[in-house]
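The following block was generated as part of the benchmark described in Methods. Ligand: zinc ion.
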Amino acid sequence: MRAFSGDIYLAGKKHRAIAFDRSGIVALDDSVFDLDVEVEELGSHFLTNAFMDGHAHPLFAGREELGPVVTEARSVAEIQSIVGAWVEANQTPQWAVGGAYDRSMVDGGVFLAKWLDEVSGDRPVVLHGSDHHTLWANSAAMQLAGVLEAAPEVSIGSIDVDSSGRPSGVFRETEAKELITNAIPPLSVDDELKALAWAQKRLASLGISAVQDAWMDKGMVEAYLEAAKRDELLVRTNLAFWVRPESWREDSAMFLDQRVQVSQTNHRLLTASTVKFFADGVFGSATASVKKPYDSQPGYFGDPVWSDEELKAAVAHFAAEDFQIHIHAIGDAGVASALDAIEYAGSPANSVVAHTELVADEDIPRFAKLGVIANFEPLWARQDGMLASCIHHLGRTRIDSMYRMRDLIDAGAHISFGSDWPVSSPDPILGVFTATHRALPETPDESWTPEQRISPEEALHAYTVAVSRQLNLPIDIADFVILSGNPLTSPILEIRILETVVDGKTVFSSQ
Ligand SMILES: [Zn+2]
């Protein structure tokens, strides 16, 4: 058992002392001092519920970390030098698969295979775009995937082509991307576990005790099962099975079976209770589905991934199998069809609409009415390159009505926070700053849309209580973070994570 006294803030309430062990909170306030336990003084430090990430892709992030990491690169030349150095330093894996390049660096995100060819020799190279809805491949990768000479037809998304109709390097949305990714040999179990361990450690170091891994792709459930068997998990993880329009009826039995396998590991930190749908794409590629046509393409409303009827049927099916519903929806039409499907399925408890970038006025009250959690990635609510790259698609007015956190809270909705890591940083301190300022860290007073800012208390709630509700975790579990100061009263960006406790056990310490 451990006990602390000082500045303590749990689920929106202040306390002066706490004692906990692996079973959860044992005592609060005065009764702590009656226990036969040494009470540690927090001094200027601050103890609160650990952060939780309601939508992220830690294993994708870890896999990318094994390849060339181009996230910080600011030009194509910098990307070339990182990829060139990686190819030279690593003989295996043969495929250089990394990320995440900033799509806004080149107009329209039109990156060319030949730029990678210049530094990759005969090695196949695949880089994920920062939105993770696009990828950039070199000629060797396209050759091995059998798409070098001609671009196959895809029904959703697109393949960039050159003047002679040959693929030029960029593949947009799942169906197009899979032409390349299906050709990539699977990682070894050891590499998968290395990727996962790296990702879990990174989350723990940021004060995060639980995460919704929001997309199980090939080999990922198996990696988590193996990590659970070897007891290598640090952070609570809930897995979401990916429900696809073309195969959900066949896939359903496999999800049920994998859910059983996960529960049979009896690992306290691992669950698999969620299914994930993509209602639409993203704004950067103009694939999110919108109620009014894109400014950039008259008469075009984006690419819904599902027909409304089929999405309703699939959501109802998985809700009846007792899966939690988690739907990616970015455009206002995508959000509306996600809400329609959840309503049709009888509003299953704690259903989540993730991203909720554009929500029409008429749909705002439906979140509270249907009990749907709106999961935001707060780091997107700022005027940066990603936002700017969508202006020509949406126009200024629509851009400035994105991420309506204040409106949803005021309408009585639950909002939870996540990162969509590796799409953006998983750092919740940066997330709290952005939600409360809607500004860039270097210009904190230049708020992009100040009317949608929320308070530090609301931001902490969205990162803790709201995600624990989303993940169906009791709020008195022993998941805490010790911070260097009080985030409610001191400048948030100066706060550092000193210790992260998951299930009563320290999983990160800055000492
Ligand atoms: Zn995501």
